[in-house]
Amino acid sequence: MLDALLREFWAANGWQLVHTFTRPGRSQQLFDPGELDLSVPSRRYLGACYPDGLYLHQLEAIRHHLQGRDVGLTTGTASGKSLPFYVAAIEALVRDPGARVLAIYPLKALAREQERRWADALATAGFPRQGVARLDGDVPVSRRAGLLQKAAVVVATPDIVHAWLLPGVGDGAVWRFIAQLRVVVVDEVHVYTGVFGSNAAFLFRRLEHLMALAGQRAAYVAASATIRDAAGHLRALCGRDFHIVDEGHDTSGQQELNVYLVNPPDSRDLLTSVSGFLQAMAARTPARFITFVDSRKQTELMATIIARSQQKAAEAGGEEPLPGFEHLQKLDVLPYRAGFEEHDRAVIQDRLASGTLRGVVATSALELGIDIPHLDVGVLVGVPRSGTSLMQRIGRVGRQVPGAVVIVNNGDVYSEAMFRKPAELFERPLAEGALYLENPRIQYIHAMCLARPGGEHDRALARAGASPEGPFSSPVSWPPGFVELCARERAGEIPPDLQSMKMEAGDTPHHTYPLRDVESQFNVEHQQGPEVYPLGSLSFGQVLREAYPGAVYYYTTVPYRVYQVLVRARTVRVRRERYYTTRPQMLPTQVFPNLSPGNVHRATRQGELFLVETNLQIREAVCGYKERRGPTEISEKYPLEPAGSGISYPQELFTRNYFTTGVIVVHPALLRSGVAHSRLAELLYECFLIEIPFERQDINWAAGRLKVARGPFQEGTVFITIFDQTYGSLRLSGRLMDSGVMRKVLLRAIDVSRAGTLMDLNDETMGCLNEMLLATALPVRDIMGEMAGSEEATVRGADGAEDRLVRIILPGSVGLDRMKDNEEFYVEGVFFSPRDGLRYRGRHPSDSDATVKVTVPVQNLVPVPGESRLGWYDLETGEIVGEQGQPGRGEHE
Quick check: 824 and 657 in contact, CB under 8 A? Predict the structure, then answer.
């Protein structure tokens, strides 16, 4: 019946059914657990809940745990991966009634759901239900220590472990809990990737360090969707070797699933077309559905279109408009994404679990194992980037009865490529554990938490009766450089590029820096009278795209106008607005490669094709926005005067500067007339993500010209680049330089461009692409020596002059103030003060009075590679000497 209704809608509304798959069902196979050496409580639990036996992967995981191994399960969705968690905990509690178990789940909703299941499992085994407690940000601080004292099993999010549990190790209840830990459970390991995963890798090691100080070592049991190199990912994440029980052992059953690939009609925009399809499903079928999109903004806009339709129908029937936040209880379809306030998220999750919500439009946040019963249809807007994400999303549907999955072509390069070759859909590469543990900002967050004077290390030593004096040491396997950074933190020798983090964090780095970003978050606030209502949190990058000055920001389908962004205070202020939509007017991303010695990570050459992985400075800027009001579109440019619009933004650009790494690609053909550099860079970016399935928000692309000559490159050399969007980098883009990857990317790019409809390239650009491909057939030659061979200019003068010279940014040039969110600083003078040392005089663009000059220490500014003009300041004579040795006069006070 559902199949016929879907086909009928598509035929009547201009949709095109491109291809169908049927994933056949699979019968389960069960095995007798009698051979396992289990305690009576474990056997009681298994006999009551699994009287017919266990799946093979469950049996194998328990077996290896009992043999003393750390175990990781990587089987499919809904395959019963939680059962070994419960058995491991029961066995630990039988051996030692004072033992404690910590079960970590990456989302509050998942932890809340699993709290009940843990209680059920332990009660069935004969333990009291009150022996299970949940710790997350919603539990009042005053109750937390009491829960730790009473509970044998604590279900927690990694966020609360970072923000409260480990920093509180000086408290007796926390210390005793850590000292009694015997089992650590980590679920949904595949989501511990990127910034979140890299931060979590240090969090798990901090926990391990504190357990070691308490003389303990716990067993780990982990579960994950199927990912590439699960053993390597778990080793990087937890610093331990795991025995992997993979899908080859999975004997669980699964329902038949029909998969449809469809093209939406050309006559309407994508969001309107998909929203119309979801409305029809809600109105004409009994199906409950989940729709996955790839951006937070899309979840809001799509759910808003459906909500507006429902509200208009209700008002036409004489109903009153929904006041306040009652829409969360009344609407049939709601959005779900990261960044919601906990109350709002809980309402949506409760309605999903109870079946009172017909549908949800979600980001990948709902790929996780939250139990949503009765889902009949999954709608995927765009093809998921990895095989892991694809299987997680379709695994949400048809768990009890056969289901349907509709994959909608969203028109991007990746989806178009998959729709051209549907057979490749289920052959997509698995997700990779994208962890980079040498990011200096990530390392320093955890060095502050653990090793600062009075931090976790000192508090644990005090509890253990040891002195915190002496050098920092640890038995834990830390990433390179971390122990040395801890030692510098304890000595107060903080690297200059990290000093702004120290100033912002103070004594609460665990609160200032959450696990899910390397920068502090912006809080969105809506003030009504004396009350201020929180409307979620955003990273700086998300503010730049969703909540820039003047933007219409949607929160649970309700529109708000951003009237002020306070960057230093990390606050976005909003007011209610009509149902308008806005999009930022972004300037082309500017990339400044730093090819100076010490900043190049890898450099290779194949014929005339150069690939260089190097440090970059990125400048992103919004110059205004376009606003859609029904059929009318208006354009607004910064600065904005509050007198006219009520929106305050006095600067010409809303800018973010950050430092990262990327791969620059250089070839002489890029210099030819007619080559579309930006188009080519975008194509290579899209094809890189087809070959290496990283998340789009972690990687970006740009094109530019080198501002200075360096190594084999002349000033003005054209480059294209693929780079990391994370501050400090995760080194993901460096995969482009792995053996054979560039050739695969270029082959894919040529295939995509030949399709015509995907991404048209002119003849000159196609010729450049083909020449680059030909070069990849040549031997790879390392050219790091050539890159290191061009040192900075030096000053020639009297003997010993170099000893009194300080490198500076010359007056009339610009640098970035790392103590002020990397805001630009225009240098107008350099002077020496006996009290304050060498300083710049000038101004920031955000300074309210441009006539008033401010001064900053020389060490606060960093040059923009190729843009800042550099020279030297002679501390003895006060002379300023430029790159060409031309003297000028500085200032003294």
Answer: yes
Percent of the chain with pLDDT strictly greater than 70:
95
588 DSSP 8-state letter: P
Cross-sheet strand order for the sheet of 359-362: 16-23, 257-263, 403-408, 377-381, 289-292, 359-362, 333-336
Q: What pLDDT, on the 0 to 100 scale, is given for residue 798? A: 45
pLDDT at 890 over 80: no
Among 457, 460, 450, smallest CA distance to 482 is for 450
State the greatest distance between any 2 C-alpha atoms of the chain, in Å, as a whole number: 91
Contact 608, 571 (CB under 8 A): no
Query: Which pLDDT belongs to residue 795?
Result: 47
CA distances from 333 to 113, 195, 276, 290, 351 (A): 22, 31, 12, 9, 10
Torsion, Cα 309 310 311 315, to 10 degrees, reads 100
Say if residue 639 is preceded by a cis peptide, omega within 30 of 0: yes
Residue 541 and residue 725 in contact, taking contact as beta carbons nearer than 8 Å: yes
Q: Which residues of 200-223 are buried (b: 16+ CB within 10 A; e: fewer)?
A: bbbbbbbbbbbbebbeeebbbbbb
Residues 218-225, mean pLDDT to the nearest whole number: 96
- Lookup: tokens for 724: 């990391």
Q: Could you give the CA distance from residue 691 to residue 430 in angstroms, rounded to a whole number?
A: 10
| Strand bridging mode 153-156 / 100-104 | parallel
On whether the CB atoms of residues 689 and 158 are closer than 8 A, the answer is no
Token readout for 382 is 């765009």
Between 803 and 73, whose confidence is greater?
Answer: 73
* CA distance from start to end of the chain: 85
Three-class secondary structure assignment of 409-463? CCCCHHHHHHHHCHHHHHHCCCCECCCCCCCHHHHHHHHHHHHCCCCHHHHHHHH
Q: How confident is the model at residue 792 (pLDDT cuts 50, 70, 90)?
A: very low
Q: Nearest 5°: CA angle at 227, between 223 and 231?
A: 70
pLDDT at 893: 43
* Dihedral of alpha carbons 711, 716, 722, 723, sign: positive
The residue to which tokens 């191994």 are assigned: 69
> How many Å apart are CA 565 and CA 548, to the nearest integer?
7
| DSSP classification of residue 649 | B
Coil, helix or strand for 349?
Answer: helix
Give me the DSSP letters along 242-263.
EEEEEGGG----B--EEEEEEE
Q: Is the dihedral of CA 764, 766, 768, 774 positive or negative?
A: negative
CA distance 430 to 387: 5
Other beta carbons within 10 Å of 466 = 12
What is the 8-class DSSP label of residue 573? E
Residues 682, 684, 685, 689, CA torsion sign: positive
Task: Return d(Cα 398, Cα 290) in angstroms, integer.
Answer: 11
How many angstroms separate the CA atoms of 784 and 119, rounded? 58
**Three-state DSSP class for 38?**
coil
Burial class from Cβ neighbours inside 10 Å (0-12, 13-18, 19+) for residue 429 reads middle
Q: Are 414 and 699 in contact (CB under 8 A)?
A: no
Question: Containing H/E element for 135?
Answer: strand 132-135
For 122: left if phi > 0, alpha if psi spans -120 to 50, otherwise beta; the answer is alpha
Q: Which residue has the higher pLDDT, 561 or 348?
A: 561
Write the DSSP symbol of residue 640.
B
Q: Looking at this protein, which amino acid is placed at residue 720?
A: I
Grade residue 317 by pLDDT with cuts at 50, 70 and 90: low
Please list, in sequence order, all residues whose beta carbon lies within 8 angstroms of the beta carbon of residue 435, skipping any fewer than 6 positions away.
192, 193, 197, 198, 201, 233, 236, 237, 730
For the chain, the residue count is 893
Integer angstrom CA distances of residue 557 from 108, 297, 335, 524, 532: 22, 10, 7, 15, 19
Q: Which helix (H) or strand (E) holds 442?
A: helix 440-451
Average predicted confidence (pLDDT) for the chain? 91
